[in-house]
Write a structure and sequence with these properties.
With about 325 residues, this protein is of the alpha+beta class. Helices cover about 30% and strands about 35% of the residues. A hairpin with a 2-residue loop joins strand 4 and strand 5.
Length: about 325
């Protein structure tokens, strides 16, 4: 048997805890998910990261930045391996993640103090719908606990753009960042400046495109894209602006390679349209289309870290 608590009921029962954000993003086409969790304390989230690394489960990779951890996971089940942690160190992990309509269900096991995080901290995050507890649930001490945390399904969207400025004014990276920080739909995640081939004949000063990413409820995807399109239409200084849209967690490797080569290769617009078509990138021409190469490359380079901002020779 089990019982269910809402975030407000968890706060009432256990008091205010420390999770400040918890988002579950899915890419069902590729069988992947991503969880973004923010904690009040860096020490606590560091400890969680190490313990989740030990246990494995459905988590395949974790990146910690400040007080926020981004966890890449599989959709499905995975074996937890606590090893000596079960008797000496405590431990915590996700052994299953499923998608049911508009909901994501994450199934957790926690040992000793690690059980408090999955029993009282995460369950009271504002983005949680409910948490399902076993009838014999007890946190802390030497107890082993299991919880099922239910959250809304979200998807990831990357918006790329190029050629919003002219030689006399503007900057594409400023336009994209203003667009992202004023968007009323979804949650703004990252902003990137993508350095492109400085020998391109139709560049402004720096020859950079730009991109931003969001997580959004599927029902709001079209509204988000419409907001971004309208913002660019109203704020671009160029008549060659192009915007691109990619949805999902996994950018195709072919497009990543294409974007990297755009830093040293002079592609044609036709090649950019072909790359977009082959890799599920939507191209939105605001007017003319000289910006299509940079806007497509912005998607390809979005997940390559600091390399997005440099040229190949910067990393030799």
């Amino acid at each position: 048997m089990s019982y269910v608590l809402t975030p407000e009921e968890v706060r009432t029962k256990y008091g205010n805890m420390f999770c400040k954000g918890f988002y579950t993003i899915v890419d069902e086409k590729n069988g992947l998910a991503q969880i973004i969790e923010t904690c009040t304390s860096k020490g606590s989230i560091e400890w969680d990261v190490i313990n989740r690394k030990r246990t494995g489960g459905v988590i395949t990779n974790m990146e910690l930045e400040g007080n926020t951890v981004t966890m890449d996971t599989l959709i499905g089940e995975g074996q937890l391996n606590f090893g000596p942690a079960s008797s000496e160190l405590g431990g915590q992990g996700i052994y299953k993640l499923t998608v049911d309509g508009d909901e994501v269900h994450t199934f957790w096991t926690g040992i000793a103090g690690a059980g408090i995080g999955i029993g009282a901290c995460i369950p009271q995050a504002d983005t949680v719908i409910k948490t399902i507890y076993p009838d014999d649930f007890k946190m802390g001490g030497a107890h082993t606990v299991n919880t099922e945390i239910v959250t809304p399904k979200m998807i990831k969207v990357i918006i790329g753009m190029d050629d919003t400025d002219t030689k006399d004014g503007g900057a594409s990276w400023v336009t994209s960042l203003k667009m992202a920080t004023t968007c009323p739909y979804g949650k703004f995640l990252e902003h990137k400046i993508i350095q492109l081939n400085p020998k391109a004949p139709n560049k402004t000063t720096n020859c950079c495109s730009t991109a931003v990413s969001f997580v959004v409820y599927p029902k709001d995807l079209n509204k988000l894209v419409e907001h971004c399109t309208d913002f660019v239409v109203k704020n671009t200084l160029s008549d060659n602006t192009v915007m691109t849209v990619f949805t999902g967690l996994k950018i195709p490797e072919k497009l990543v390679n294409w974007g990297w080569k755009a830093k040293s290769t002079l592609y044609t617009k036709e090649e950019a349209y072909q790359a977009a078509k082959e890799n599920d990138v939507r191209v939105i021409n605001i007017d003319k289309d000289n910006g299509v190469i940079g806007a497509v490359a912005a998607i390809g380079c979005f997940n390559i870290g600091i390399k997005s901002a440099g040229l190949p020779e910067d990393f030799e």
